[in-house]
Amino acid sequence: MTKNMGSADRMIRLLIALAIAVLYFTGRIGGTLAIVLGIVAVAFLVTSLVGWCPSYLPFGLSTRKPSGGPPSAGA
Description:
This protein has two helices and no strands. By secondary structure, the chain is mainly α. The two termini are 27 Å apart.
């Protein structure tokens, strides 16, 4: 599994998950909305910690910067 999320993408997802948690624990959201947003928050948290988002695969997306290694010699 190759990482396909850049650091900015990961940070934004963490902040959104944190915001959802704050809204829930302060009582601003509840019921079905809290359940749906809780699932979204958990998905954002897991994908940001792992650095890989499966929903990017079908579209060939990646927010990760290409590695800055030296070009290969020869060939």
